[in-house]
Records
---
Amino acid sequence: MPRRQRKTSAAPKQEPRKGNNGLKHRREKRRAAAETPKDSPHTYRPEELLSPPALLSRFTERATELIAALPEEARPTQAAVTAALRQAVLEAFRSREEYVARMVEVDLFADEPNQSARSLRKGIRTALLDQGVRRVDSPDGGSELFVVVEGEGEAFEVLRPAYVDQATGKLVLSGQLRRLPGAQEGDQAAGEDS
């Protein structure tokens, strides 16, 4: 039979897959980003936010207003106020630089090839210890570091550890506990059996 006379069966038209491949989400995200005004609070503006002279001038203006409200004999000199504000701004920038440097170190550590979750956790905890932050995994002896968030009973399960700044003794992040019903009674019975 000549080729012209042969009937070819067309492949059935395939419908696009309806799985979640993320394309729709990415398009919506791009569209939302394009529609967001440039002066949105979500837009990072380093020239405005991180300019030491601009911050210092705003702080000085506000400090001058506050000092004007004080009685004449209790007012500090303008030079003392400016020096104190300048020192505070510089310390804040140093703290931010140190924080950013630590975050970069953690990101670089996490980005190393063949990194397992266990070694990543160990590296992050080592970085925390280097910074003087202690992780508390148990409420024993430190119950003020934890908050009970759910459940009833006498025994506890740690949902989130607590973090303490060792230099100051301040709580960085409180831990979370869940109360477990009857678990303590079961623990006592198990102890009596042995």
---
Amino acid sequence: MKSLPLSLTAILLCCLASSCQSDNTTPATTTPESGSSQSAPAAAASAVSAPAPLSPSAFDVRPGVEQQTSKQGYLQVVSAKVLKTEPMQVTLPWMWGSDPDRPGGRKVSTAPGYRISYEAVLRWQPVGYGPKEKVPASLPLYAPNGTDSLASFQVGAQGLTKPERFTVSQIHPHTPVTVRGTLYAYTGHNNQKQPALVVYPYRDPSGLPEPNRMTFLTLQSPGQ
């Protein structure tokens, strides 16, 4: 297997420097969007190995929330704000721990990161309806409750593999609705080598991590 990209190498090196691994991981889960199964990056808080506390105003969470909506674009993120950031060791996706070129051949399973609680305003823009088709007055909105970091927001979803991992409410066409959610992110750098949080999930959670498909939450410098 080829070596991981530079930004991921920085994440893994940061994890190696922490020299502490979490024993608390969640079971394999399935994302409704892709159907791929793998471990979700839940984590155990650690007073020794967790990164430094991070102010909710240190980054813009909106790109991370947009990552949790369908790529078909029927859910628009109107606004988003961070409610709380919790430092912790976050479990790495299973494909990230299989690089044989890592120094000493060590398999790294966790990296310093954060659990981010947020509040966002979403709006449902109906798509895929024909000229003579009636748009429903409302549909169920399935919001991930934070126990499965591979889950994403779904409108009118059916046959969910893990329905208990979602909170269900109603959403109306073109009408904003306020929701609360959870993101998991790793400490690292963006493609410009600026300090950033790397948000999981990605559009292809079963594949190798690619920097051009990741979502970065760039950290603001003090005073900005």
---
Amino acid sequence: MSPVADAARARAACLAELRRKADRGDTDCLPWLIGQAARDRRLLAIHVWMVDQAVFGATRFTARRHVAQADAWCRPIKTKHRATRTDRRQHPFRPATATLRWLLDGRTGGARWAAWLLAIGLDMGFRLDPPDPYSHDQTGDDRAQDTPGADIPAR
């Protein structure tokens, strides 16, 4: 058996197990995948859209749109300065070729992972609550216990 065929078989088995876990309703599918990828580096070549299909049941078009959205949210802001030589040589991003290695790249600090999950969640109907500037009962509040909740002085 060649190493290339071995790696392809390992990736296919991982995706099949991921699909079985998702069909059973296991909530630890993605943490399990990250743990498996940490043990077997060959799994980092799995395409992100395939993981989206296996876990969330997305179509190929929708799964690739999630990857493209995550990339757009995490792409560095372009300046109006002239492009450097290396910028001109880079190929455009293609969502179909994004792998787990790209998604879990440590240099992003988890931003791509979070953006990908947020794109999936928003597509599934999850809505973020808008910020409430008037609430002071949140855990980050550093007021003393007996301080009034409003910033407007009482008369």
